[in-house]
Amino acid sequence: MTAIIEINHLKKNFGENEVLKDINVSVEKGEVLTIIGSSGSGKSTLLRCINLLEKPTSGEIVYQGENVLQKGYNLPKYRTHLGMVFQSFNLFNNMDVLENCMSGQITVLKRSREEAKKIAFENLEKVGMSRFVSAKPAQLSGGQKQRVAIARSLSMNPDVMLFDEPTSALDPEMVGEVLKTMKDLAQTGLTMVIVTHEMQFARDVSDRVIFMDKGVIAEEGTPEDLFVNPKEDRTKAFLSRVLS
């Protein structure tokens, strides 16, 4: 497999507080990588550093052989290769579902309206939301909004999709529909990095799982390694807490 993103010696401080301490990890093309850990372990900060919503304090993020943190690198172009799905949907309330999935394509990728519309519709169909094209976000449930947010990201044709706890703001009965959508996407060969607290989902869809604790990667391996035979005491303690 070839690494699409390599993270080397990444650190992130907020003032005196060191949130990420020397993170080294690669994301392989076509891989589903999930990141688990307690609140405050640095999971979401790592994700936000990958797409540069947070600027790392030091280290490298290598995308297709180039360090994106070097001076003069084209950051806006790099960001177009990454899709991001947030906890809180971030849809435009004044636009309908179809327009939400078209606007980025038109403004950022300079696609024609016709092409953007076709691509948006295909992706809405993929996530089971094509019959809601004319609905405004206010008319949708949380699970439906999140599926539109996924379709919007997919419509930008990203190389890597980043998911930051995409089900944490949802009512329990809506979690399943979003996880099913993500599971279906995982089977298409899309490269995905997912921060999640849904352990069964992580176990089912991941090629590799990372357990973070206090700003470091404490353990990583296959779902079998992590969930069945964890080596580190802190991994065992975390899993016994969340799985009990």
TrEMBL record:
Record has ATP-binding as a keyword: yes
GO annotations of cellular component type: plasma membrane
Compartment annotation: Cell membrane
Protein name stated in the entry: Amino acid ABC transporter ATP-binding protein
Membrane topology: Peripheral membrane protein
Keyword Methyltransferase appears in the UniProt entry: no
Keyword line: Amino-acid transport, ATP-binding, Cell membrane, Membrane, Nucleotide-binding, Transport
InterPro entries: AAA+_ATPase, ABC_ATPase_HisP-typ, ABC_transporter-like_ATP-bd, ABC_transporter-like_CS, MetN_ABC_transporter-like, P-loop_NTPase
PANTHER family assigned: AMINO ACID IMPORT ATP-BINDING PROTEIN, GLUTAMATE_ASPARTATE IMPORT ATP-BINDING PROTEIN GLTL
Domain ABC transporter: start-end pairs: 5-239
Transmembrane segments: none
Family according to the record: Belongs to the ABC transporter superfamily.
Species this protein is from: Enterococcus sulfureus ATCC 49903
A GO molecular-function descriptor: ATP hydrolysis activity
